[in-house]
Design a protein that fits this description.
The chain has one helix at about 5-10; strands at about 15-20, 20-25, 35-40, 45-50, 55-65, 65-70, 75-80, 85, 95, 100-110. By secondary structure, it is mainly beta. It has a domain at about 25-110: Jelly Rolls (Sandwich). Strands 1-2-3-10-5-8 form a six-stranded antiparallel β-sheet, with no helix packed on it. The chain has a four-stranded antiparallel β-sheet with strand order 4-9-6-7, with no helix packed on it. Strand 1 and strand 2 (about 20-25) form a beta hairpin. GO terms for molecular function: ectoine synthase activity. Pathway: Amine and polyamine biosynthesis; ectoine biosynthesis; L-ectoine from L-aspartate 4-semialdehyde: step 3/3. InterPro entries: Ectoine_synth, RmlC-like_jellyroll, RmlC_Cupin_sf. Its EC number is 4.2.1.108.
Length: about 130
Amino acid sequence: MIVRTTAEITGTDRDVAAGAWRSKRIVLAGDGVGFSFHETTIEASSVSEFHYRHHVEAVWIIEGTGTLTDLESGEAYPLAPGTMYLLNGHERHRVTCATQMRMLCVFNPPVSGDEVHDESGAYPAPAAV
């Protein structure tokens, strides 16, 4: 059994910030459960672009409002508490925050925790196990 709090993760190597976002990585690949689970906050009035070529990500909005734009189709979706989006096609996407947003994110395969977004906004492919 694993029990963790965001308070104990804050300020550790599981608390990762870059640009307008901060990700508290609660469950990582090293935990051996087949997915990773993160609490992510993105600053108000910010725009962030991502492209997870090697991961599927599910995102559940629990605080704040904004817009998700699929950069491949141009389609835009409003984001608010209670909204979930699933990047099951590895879509390049943009998150525009009207207010600070807080979301819970699940990645498959799990991230190890030390990934850095490359110039396209993607994490590298996970190492073979």
